[in-house]
Amino acid sequence: MAEEVTRVMVAVNESSMKGYPHPSISSKGAFEWTINKIVRNNVSAFNLLFLHVQVPDEDGFNDMDSIYASPDDFKNMNQRDRIRGVHLLEYFVNRCHEIGVVCQAWIMKGDPKEVICHEVKRLRPDLLVVGSRGLGPFQKVFVGTVSEFCWKHAECPVISIKRKPDETPQDPVDD
Amino acid sequence: MAEEVTRVMVAVNESSMKGYPHPSISSKGAFEWTINKIVRNNVSAFNLLFLHVQVPDEDGFNDMDSIYASPDDFKNMNQRDRIRGVHLLEYFVNRCHEIGVVCQAWIMKGDPKEVICHEVKRLRPDLLVVGSRGLGPFQKVFVGTVSEFCWKHAECPVISIKRKPDETPQDPVDD
């Protein structure tokens, strides 16, 4: 049987409804599925790698209250984003600690689908797990889906875990 | 932690080069990956379900030597196909027996991608594993890919396992 641990990368993001530090429904579901169906009680055989990709805030829509008057203001904003991301990762790292599975977690900035595939290339996990909102073809045209891009382009096997029907919010684009 | 076993359906087919009873490179690879990376030594926590879908032989190309003169001839042909399929499944069932993981295996006839999705619906496995030849977009136009269809339509999480580059035959459509 395999001697090395199985390294599972899990891409996670924040809830679009509750915001940081709450994980999205689909990333929480993907994590729980991985623990319940794959890792199970064989905790010493798996390492989990949590990647959170932050999308640079292009139009500053979420920062209407902020005034940027100096380079320090931007530094502070970046610092604040980072801290929010760390709190999101804390949720997953704490869960792993409870369960007893070794993990690591880190934050990157950029286009999530591109960054995830790049990190797969760099770190060569055995498996990539991504949550999926399970959108229909019509909805996908407008929002794009990270899971489909990763399935096609990531250089490792990919599982996408769809949300359960009873977890889907009123607007299925929310997560 | 989960009490029930994790049920993994693995779709398998015969080698296009060596024919029955040899498994295709990609289905052998998908099986070995599942054992090495997911099941590992936690054999009692998993059940494997091997599904082999036989494509009805439309033009009789593989049966040039046969003469069909009575209904019994067709019965015999069906019987022979079945036996070939059983020998393919024997390979996987024997491997599971060696490893100590509980499994079951069965044969269906029809369009593999449709039948696989139908069987997922019927049996509700936790995970479907399919091998993939890893063909480029140009090659796919001509041969279609079961893995992509299943990824989109199967009602459970799907992993497709691409062949290793050093296992790819001269003609990548072969398997």
Automatic annotation (TrEMBL), chains A, B:
CDD domains in UniProt: USP_At3g01520-like
Coiled coil spans: none
Gene3D superfamilies documented for this protein: HUPs (3.40.50.620)
GO MF assignments: AMP binding
Domain UspA: 23-160
This protein's name: Universal stress protein A-like protein isoform A
